[in-house]
Structures are given as C-alpha cells and as structure tokens.
Amino acid sequence: MSDGILGSAFAMRDTQPAWHVKGDLLGDAELTAVQALKHIKGDYEVSKLPIPVTLNGKTMHSGQNFVIRGESAHDDKGEIILGTNTVSDDWELITPIEAMELFDSAVPYPVDSIGVLRDGGSIFVSVRVPDADFDVAGQEHKMYILFSNAMIYGRKQYASFTPVQTVCMNTEQLAIEKAHRLLEIAHVKDSRRIIAEWLQETVASRMIVKEAYTEGFERLAKTPMDELTSKWVIDNVYPMPKLPRNTDKKAYKDIEARMERYDRDVKRVRKIRTIAKGFQYGNGLGSEGNESNAFGVYSAITELETYRKSKGEIFESMTTGARASRMRNAQRLALVANDLAGQVENVWDLSRKDRNSVGLASLEMVRS
Fold this sequence. Notes:
about 375 residues, three-stranded antiparallel beta sheet, seven-stranded mixed beta sheet, 14 strands, about 35% helix, alpha+beta
C-alpha cells in the first residue's frame, strides 16, 4: 500500500510514528503551518509559466501554461523532482508557502500533521481542534481541520472538518470522505478568499459540529446488540463474493483463474471478518464497555478501515477502495440490525429501493 509521501517530507505532532514510519515527530512542538512546511522542506518553488507558440514567424501565448515544481522537492534518492502540468490561463495557482500563509491566517491551532504528496503535486496540513473533541461511551473522538492544496491539473482544493487524522494519501482521502463540513473548490481566481472564509467559518462553528457528532454516536451507544446481531452487521459490511459462473464462453474464458481469485477473496473476507470481530471484543480501541451495543461494532469496523493502532500495534488495513462507504454502511446497519437481522440474511439481496430506505452506500467488495 502506497502512502504517497514524497521522500521523507512529512511531520506529525506525536511521539509515535505513523504507520509508514516516515518523516519527523514533532512531539509537543507548536508550529504554525508555515514553520511546519519549512521544517519538512516543503517550501519549494512552484511556477505557472506561459507556453509560447510560433506562427508565421511571430511568437505569442498559446493560452496554455506549464505548472513547474521542483528545485527543493526531492525523492527518496535525493534526486530533484521536476513535475509539469499544462493548465489554462484562468487556472489559479496557490504555491506551498502561499497555502500555508492562508491557512495560518484563518486557523489558530498548531499543526498536527503536514506532508508533501503526489510527487510534490500537493501538500496537506491538518490541525487538531481540541475543544471540538468529544467522548462517546468511554471512547474519545478527536476532530481535525484539513487543508489539501493541489498544484496539479485535474485535482481540486479541499478543506474538511473531520474526525480522521491525516498521515498519508489514503487517510487524506478518507478525511475528505468522512468530513462533516467539506469545501471542494476548483482553481478559480477567487479561491484564496473562498478558502480563507470557509476555514474561518469552520473554526467559528466547531461546537455545533461537535454536538451533531455526539448526538449521532450516542444513538449508536444506546442501541443494544447481541453477538449474533453484531456478526450480521460485520458479515453484511464485508459480504462474500459471488461464485463465478461459466455461462458465457466469450466473457468467461478463463474460469480456472476466476475460481482461484474467488477462493482468495473468500479467504480474505473471512480473515477481515475475524479481525473486525476481534476489534469489537477486546482488541479494539473502542471495544471496552461497548461489546454489547451498536457503537461497538461500528467502532470496530471504523478502526479496521482507518488503519488505527490496536493495543499498541500498528494494523495496516488489508482493504482498498471506498472505505468511507463501508463505514457508512456499518453505521446504518448497526442502527437497523435489531429489526432486520432476523428477517434478511444478506441485505444486498434486497431491492435497490429497500436498500436506499436503509441509507446504504454502494456495495464495496473486498478483493485480493
């Protein structure tokens, strides 16, 4: 699994390393975004330069531009990264140092994590918002403000207020998908002002968000659930793959290879189900005191999907794809399990209309 970090350009305010064990640990140091950026040597130059064209002996601007990044951006071998992208005239570039200055002007908290991703094409910065943290059923939930500054064509700027700590490219995406408040903006001329105002509004409204999260999780904690019903939730979040059928010779020429993959997928799903159950009953961060409620099974699946540490050991998730969809399904199924578990063995056999009424996201199979 790739972390997406450029070389060692990562730092976090902790005494324990992230799962990828890259970058520096800041301990209790309280750095601004600009200070943290310079600490990881992420303050490299990024330029937007016009692409000239020559027509009938005359040189003019083509309407397209190169975005060139490099000089200070290095890979694991210490070699300079010179990435280029072609963008239009109205594509607005925010350089690394400009992005961190913007962030510091709106957010009054020290950096929790910062990193350079996508070969220097984007930088994220995240801060913890301690007065928005909340406790549900004995488990502490931390809240973060994340800003992801992209400098490559085709990727937007993102800012989110989220319960996910960002330490890599995967958790950056997860923090965006799980955001309670989310800003998604193209590289338009007024993007700096829009981003700054959104960040200021997020800081101002943080306590309202805290109340919303607390209410939702407390509902799960107050919903009793026995072991058999918890198993039903886990089995439906991680359904078994369907047995391949050799009904179309053109579409399914290699049935033996497909059966081998099917067998691998079955083993993987069984292992994941076992791990999720273990997280709920004794091995998970949120397991103590929550073994017999809906919050316990939801917390177990969330821990499995977000690479959380369990009992001091780093667990790297085996799953890929839309992790946020599986966590959403876990929450919805945990709330309706006591009513549905005795009626329906596999919720994915229900009609689309019935699944939508429960609020399920798309089916996300676990593959080898």
